Amino acid sequence: MFKLIACDLDDTLLKNDFSVSDNNREAINEVKKRGIKLIILTGRVTAAVRPIVEGLGLDEPFGSFQGATIIDPKTDEILYSCQLEKDGIMDILKYAENHDIHVNIYDNTKIYVRRLNKWTDFYESFARKVEIVAVGSLQDYTFNKTPKVVLIDENEKLKRAYDDILKFKSAATNMFFSKKNFLEFTRKKATKGYALEFLARKWHIQRHEIMAIGDNFNDLPMIEYAGLGICMENGEEYVKQSSDFITLSNENDGVAYALDKLILKTQNPAI
């Protein structure tokens, strides 16, 4: 019997216009009625996640920045934080600036960049209602920590960057594509898998009692940790191969389809 569902936002729960369909809302409400916890784990900035969580009526903790931060929406308490130190990412910042690759760094409410450009316009479509601040060279900008670093550019250029950075990045830093134009960096224990494990342990929930739904490489840690890992039809092929079940696409209410087929029609309501 499933007791916990972890769900990604972009290209999973959200449609391409960033809305949540009526079918997905209804399915979420039905699993909540059965006493099943549903949590959001996303790469988005904390400030961009909160309105979605509130709009869905979810009061369980949610994870932002790929799981680097876990927030209790009822109290605003930070339950978990695992951030990159500036000293540990200076080589990445230097490489990006030397190769004219756009970079984002973050805190819970804002995004900081070297300068505003076409990539900030592009990113703004995902990070709605989150302020983007141009601060000049990020190497020179004063900050101590950031939950993640995102390099944004054309996919081929980022693939070359991946190969180059792999040669010098710290072993304590994760590097992965969250979208074809986003190359992201977090601490080793700042993943959706660690965030899911943290909350599961807090609630004494076993892995076989967990379902996770996502679409991209950044979702793999939670998909592989969960007893049942689900990939969207629109997901990356490698993620599909690593999943237990392929649901419909985000444009076709894939989250609702999975919840209905695997829980609502098969799992008896909690008494």
Note down, in words, how this protein is organized.
- Helices cover 34% and strands 23% of the residues.
- It has 271 residues and is of the alpha/beta class.
- It folds into two domains: 4-81 and 190-264, 3-Layer(aba) Sandwich (Rossmann fold), CATH 3.40.50; 84-187, Hypothetical Protein, Haloacid Dehalogenase-like Hydrolase, Chain: A, domain 2 (2-Layer Sandwich).
- The strands form four sheets. A six-stranded mixed beta sheet has the order 9-8-7-11-13-12, sandwiched between helices.
- A hairpin with a 3-residue loop joins strand 7 and strand 8.
- Helix 2 runs parallel beside helix 10 (254-264).
- The two termini are 13 Å apart.
- The model has no long low-confidence stretch (mean pLDDT 95).
List its salient traits.
about 270 residues, alpha/beta, Hypothetical Protein, Haloacid Dehalogenase-like Hydrolase, Chain: A, domain 2, 2 domains, six-stranded mixed β-sheet, five-stranded parallel β-sheet, 16 strands
Under CATH at level 1, the class of the largest domain stands as Alpha Beta
As residue ranges, the low-confidence spans are none
Relative strand content = 15-25%
Q: What composes the largest sheet?
A: 6 strands, mixed
Radius of gyration: 18 Å
Tell me, rounded to a whole number, the average pLDDT.
95
**CATH homologous superfamily of the largest domain?**
HAD superfamily/HAD-like
Structural class: alpha/beta
Proportion in helices: 25-40%
The dominant shape is globular
